[in-house]
Write a structure and sequence with these properties.
Length: 164
């Protein structure tokens, strides 16, 4: 019975993708320097966590929505995969899980994945997606999350390209 309930929960997957003309190692360094987010990131204007983050660390994200309103979001780092070779493609991953009250009540679950990949001589591809589930997914605002992720991706591109 529980599996049926979970399978019938609404899902949302807001995301963004961008090509960055910088080495993957540079993009990764920018992503991992959470203390500097306020210098370049209009969406996540502050991130309070250990620097660099590691799995299990709490992270408080301070978000500025496209309408200018701000909100804090308690999360926990779930995955950190530094750059590694995958059959000639370099990859890296940073992921965290939403831990706010709606999540604790089972109303909205969310995990954000930020993936990097780069083939030799090519740009770094940044791909981010939040996998939401739960009966109140619509209240999480998947459309505004996607707009924020686009801002984040564009700012990450500018920052990494300036540093390379």
């Amino acid at each position: 019975m529980r599996l049926h309930y979970l399978a019938s929960m609404p899902l949302a997957r807001p995301g963004a993708q961008i090509e960055i003309d910088a080495p993957l190692a540079t993009v990764w360094a920018v992503m991992m320097d959470t203390g500097a987010y306020g210098e370049w990131n209009p969406f996540l204007f502050r991130a309070d966590c250990a620097n660099p983050p590691k799995p299990g660390d709490p992270i408080m994200l301070h978000v500025r929505w496209p309408n200018g309103k701000t909100q804090s979001s308690p999360e926990r780092i779930s995955q950190v995969e530094p750059p590694y070779d995958d059959n000639g493609t370099t990859r890296a991953l940073l992921a965290y899980v939403y831990e706010g009250l709606p999540s604790k009540l089972g109303l909205v679950k969310g995990t954000r994945f930020q993936r990097l990949s780069q083939t030799p001589g090519g740009p770094t591809l940044y791909d981010t997606v939040e996998v939401f589930s739960g009966p109140l997914v619509a209240l999480a605002g998947p459309t505004r999350v996607a707009a924020g992720f686009t801002q984040h991706a564009e700012a990450l591109k500018l920052r990494a390209e300036l540093l390379s």
